[in-house]
């Protein structure tokens, strides 16, 4: 049969992810794209546990567990070490959650990106500190309930625009992705592999316990996030040129929110507020993509 | 590589927490409450169930029909929801 | 080659001669000249190394960890606030068994802002598992970097080479810069048996329960103990090849001494002429300069101090609520010894306060005058 994603499995069964874990799907896809000539580093995150306890591991590639705020720069160090030793054709990947990326790890990530060190950084974003029991992070969306933003004081701050922060570093390539669209994610990883410098991939990873949703709809939710424009899929090239990966007709936001316990408390008005914020951001992205068209057209021509 | 590692004393271990074993020692099938059952007659061999399995627990047989690896399947049910032909039903484990 | 160089540059030369392959560093006074010279050495092609100019000391150590885990010989340097910022990852480097070598310039901790010398920064890291060498000359700094790699790479533990800010870091002395070929013979290229290797995939540092974590700590302690012998062995070998032998401690006029001064770094250097002068006056005084502080050479200290009449320890550091660290540890080493001498613990020179010869002499004389120390901590020169 014809597979739409690579058949090779580098990650194995038996890992410790919860049922319906988006982070596990993200890793499975990532390793399909990256292959066994990959070295990874994880800061504290769900994957520090998912990979398995010593002396076992599930990723099937060399992996250096590191401190919470150091994923990007440990990857920089690994790359420098490989370069010093003349080891080529190895992907060096920092693999971190949203807390380790948006919050505690942002300084080191900024340093690595500013130096344009030749690594791939993947943030699997489940939109809160899930490993410690669902506390809010700066990646938690407006309106969501976590254990530190209870229903009556749900999160009133908007999700940090990490892609824009990365783009402000003139990063060669940054892209968002979703576990519901593995073909798109894998295509983006393959592109990231093909170019030098720092590459940042931001993949939305459903978390059934943290989102208070049923495990079986994990992929559905990741799809609805894109279809309701809550989590748009796009790329930014050279920190300036935007490209929508898909531009689906907008589905009602409630399709995405209703099945999730973390949004259950929101009133109709609040949902409308949230919708406005989403539309505002989405139209900004479309404008940027429109502005960037000549760049991509020219790129196509030179090909 | 997938064997359980059994050490008796510190000198059996590596210098640091260096994990050489594979997590396939961890039979996650025991977590399962619901079990996916595939109706071959409805299956169109699209591979979507295989694609969306977070636990790498769906293999394709020689004829490309999906087979659930019950040793590891955690019973999340994604395959049943994603199947475009409703060929997978989740049934209660005994 | 003989060359007049500053202490900081002795660290850079040490890294160059050791053929460091990756350097990751962040600037801090009084360390800056270390990385400035290394940057130039890399830019001029004298040193074939990857230089990562990180955005903080925490990242300097984290980058060093990544590079070392990938199998490269790695060097960094810092001081005071920078070292404190690294604290978390200092533990990580040890637990991950990474043979990184780092220079640390002893500078007092803020607040208030200060840049002058004191050992409390590195003393605060004594429980991180880093081996620590306290140096007392420009030559020793350079030599210690080379020796540090030789020890680190046998026990898979990181080593800190420590020097006083300004007193050593910015002082120029004549220094023998050994031939590269001789250093290569002493310190061959390192093949890390545990490096990240795509052909031998393994995960490092994964979640470990009480069933095996304990044994991993035991292994660190065993290898730390083993490094005591290695410091002696490699110090002897260094002497045979380069004419300068190094041990765990350096003794001076100790043989028949009944009063022994124990100290480290530049205070120990200042003490030498005092010992000379007092010897001429007929006082049986001697000196031990502790060079390797981690692991603490307890056995050797017992052997050297057992049965002496009096011991005084001078610390340029303080563990608040207790005393100076060298005093604390020397006392601990001597506790179960039959002929344990009474011990005086002096705090001197904090925040770079000068400790000239007359102050050292005052401390020795006070010790000789008293039958027993009046307390656990004796402050010298506090303006009252």
Automatic annotation (TrEMBL), chain A:
Source species, domain of life: Bacteria
GO molecular function: oxidoreductase activity; thiamine pyrophosphate binding
Domain called Thiamine pyrophosphate enzyme TPP-binding: residue spans: 63-203
Record Pfam families: TPP_enzyme_C
Keywords: Oxidoreductase, Pyruvate
InterPro entries: PorB-like, THDP-binding, TPP_enzyme_TPP-bd
PANTHER family associated with the record: 2-OXOACID OXIDOREDUCTASE (FERREDOXIN), PYRUVATE SYNTHASE SUBUNIT PORB
Name recorded for this polypeptide: Pyruvate synthase subunit beta
Organism listed in the record: candidate division WOR-3 bacterium
TrEMBL record, chain B:
Limits of the 4Fe-4S ferredoxin-type domain: 34-63, 64-93
Names of the cofactor(s): [4Fe-4S] cluster
Organism, as annotated: candidate division WOR-3 bacterium
NCBIfam families linked: PorD_KorD (TIGR02179)
Keyword Repeat appears in the UniProt entry: yes
Pfam families, sorted: Fer4_21
Designated name of the protein: 4Fe-4S dicluster domain-containing protein
Gene3D superfamilies xref list: 3.30.70.20
PANTHER family listed in its UniProt record: PYRUVATE SYNTHASE SUBUNIT PORD
InterPro entries: 4Fe4S_Fe-S-bd, 4Fe4S_Fe_S_CS, PorD_KorD
Taxonomic superkingdom: Bacteria
Any one GO MF annotation of this record: 4 iron, 4 sulfur cluster binding
The keyword Cytoplasm belongs to this UniProt entry's keyword annotation: no
UniProt cross-references to SUPFAM superfamilies, sorted A to Z: 4Fe-4S ferredoxins
Record key words, sorted: 4Fe-4S, Iron, Iron-sulfur, Metal-binding, Repeat
From TrEMBL, chain C:
A single MF term (Gene Ontology): oxidoreductase activity, acting on the aldehyde or oxo group of donors
Domain Pyruvate flavodoxin/ferredoxin oxidoreductase pyrimidine binding positions: 16-226
CDD domains reported for this sequence: TPP_PYR_PFOR_IOR-alpha_like
Keyword Oxidoreductase attributed: yes
Domain of life: Bacteria
One GO term (biological process): response to oxidative stress
Pfam families: PFOR_II (PF17147), POR_N (PF01855)
Gene3D superfamilies per UniProt: 3.40.50.920, 3.40.50.970
Domain Pyruvate:ferredoxin oxidoreductase core: from-to ranges: 257-356
The protein, known as: Pyruvate ferredoxin oxidoreductase
Keywords in alphabetical order: Oxidoreductase, Pyruvate
InterPro entries tied to this protein: PFOR_II (IPR033412), Pyruvate:ferred/Flavod_OxRd (IPR050722), Pyrv_Fd/Flavodoxin_OxRdtase_N (IPR002880), THDP-binding (IPR029061), Transketo_C/PFOR_II (IPR009014)
């Amino acid at each position: 049969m014809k597979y739409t994603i690579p058949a090779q499995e580098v990650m194995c069964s038996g890992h410790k992810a919860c049922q319906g874990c988006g982070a596990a799907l993200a890793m499975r896809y990532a390793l399909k794209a990256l292959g066994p000539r990959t070295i990874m580093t994880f800061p504290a995150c769900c994957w520090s546990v998912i990979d398995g306890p010593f002396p076992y591991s599930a990723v099937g590639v060399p992996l250096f567990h590191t401190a919470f705020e150091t994923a990007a720069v440990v990857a920089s160090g690994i790359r420098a070490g490989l370069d010093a030793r003349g080891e080529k054709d190895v992907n060096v990947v920092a693999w971190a959650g949203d807390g380790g990326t948006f919050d505690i790890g942002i300084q080191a990530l900024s340093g690595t990106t500013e130096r344009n060190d030749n690594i791939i950084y993947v943030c699997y974003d489940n939109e809160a500190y899930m490993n410690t029991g669902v506390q809010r992070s700066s990646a938690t969306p407006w309106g969501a309930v976590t254990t530190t933003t209870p229903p009556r004081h749900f999160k009133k701050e908007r999700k940090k625009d990490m892609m824009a922060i990365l783009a402000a570093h003139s990063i060669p390539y940054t892209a968002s992705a979703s576990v519901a669209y593995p073909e798109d994610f894998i295509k983006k990883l393959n592109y990231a592999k093909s170019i030098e410098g720092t590459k940042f991939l931001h993949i939305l990873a459903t978390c059934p316990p943290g989102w208070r949703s049923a495990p079986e709809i994990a992929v559905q939710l990741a799809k609805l996030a894109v279809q309701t424009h809550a989590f748009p899929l796009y790329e930014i090239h050279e920190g300036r040129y935007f490209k929508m990966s898909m531009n689906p007709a907008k589905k009602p936001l409630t399709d995405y929110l209703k099945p999730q316990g973390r949004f259950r408390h929101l009133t109709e008005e609040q949902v409308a507020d949230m919708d406005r914020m989403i539309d505002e951001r989405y139209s900004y992205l479309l404008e940027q993509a429109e502005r960037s068209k000549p760049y991509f057209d020219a790129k196509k021509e030179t090909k | 590589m997938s064997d359980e590692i059994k050490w008796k004393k510190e000198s059996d271990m590596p210098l640091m927490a260096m994990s050489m074993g594979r997590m396939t020692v961890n039979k996650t099938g025991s977590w399962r409450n619901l079990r996916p059952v595939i109706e071959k007659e409805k299956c169109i061999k699209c591979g979507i169930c295989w694609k969306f399995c977070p636990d790498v627990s769906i293999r394709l047989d020689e004829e490309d029909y999906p087979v659930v690896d019950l040793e590891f399947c955690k019973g999340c049910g994604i395959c049943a929801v994603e199947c475009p032909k409703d060929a997978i039903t989740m049934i209660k484990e005994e | 080659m003989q060359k007049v160089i500053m202490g900081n540059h002795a660290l850079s030369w040490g890294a160059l001669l050791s053929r460091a392959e990756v350097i990751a560093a962040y600037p801090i006074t009084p360390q800056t000249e270390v990385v400035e010279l290394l940057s130039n050495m890399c830019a001029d092609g004298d040193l074939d190394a990857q230089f990562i100019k990180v955005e903080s000391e925490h990242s300097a150590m984290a980058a060093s960890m990544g590079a070392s885990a990938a199998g490269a010989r790695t060097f960094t340097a810092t001081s005071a606030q920078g070292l404190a910022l690294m604290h978390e990852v200092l533990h990580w480097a040890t637990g991950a068994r990474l043979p990184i070598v780092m220079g640390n310039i002893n500078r007092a901790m803020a607040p208030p802002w200060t840049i002058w010398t004191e050992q409390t920064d590195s003393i605060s890291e004594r429980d991180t598992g880093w081996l620590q060498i306290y140096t007392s000359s420009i030559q020793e700094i350079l030599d210690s970097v080379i020796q540090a790699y030789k020890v680190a790479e046998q026990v898979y533990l990181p080593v800190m080479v420590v020097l006083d800010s300004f007193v050593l870091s910015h002082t120029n002395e004549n220094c023998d810069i050994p031939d590269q070929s001789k250093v290569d013979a002493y310190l061959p290229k390192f093949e890390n048996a545990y490096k990240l290797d795509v052909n031998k995939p393994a995960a490092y540092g994964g979640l470990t329960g009480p069933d095996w974590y304990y044994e991993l700590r035991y292994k660190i302690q065993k290898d730390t103990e083993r490094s005591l012998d290695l410091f002696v062995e490699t110090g002897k070998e260094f002497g045979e090849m380069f004419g300068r032998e190094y041990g765990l401690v350096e003794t001076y006029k100790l043989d028949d001494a009944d009063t022994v001064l124990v100290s480290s770094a530049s205070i120990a250097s200042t003490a030498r002429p005092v010992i000379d002068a007092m010897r001429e006056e007929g006082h049986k005084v001697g000196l031990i300069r502790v060079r390797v502080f981690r692991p603490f050479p307890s056995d050797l200290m017992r052997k050297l101090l057992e049965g002496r009449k009096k011991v005084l320890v001078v610390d340029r550091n303080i563990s608040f609520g207790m005393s100076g660290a060298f005093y604390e540890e020397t006392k601990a080493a001597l506790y179960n010894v039959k002929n344990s001498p009474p011990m005086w613990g002096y705090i001197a020179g904090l925040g770079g306060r000068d400790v000239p010869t007359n102050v050292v002499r005052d401390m020795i004389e006070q010790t000789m005058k008293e039958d027993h120390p009046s307390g656990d901590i004796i402050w010298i020169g506090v303006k009252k």
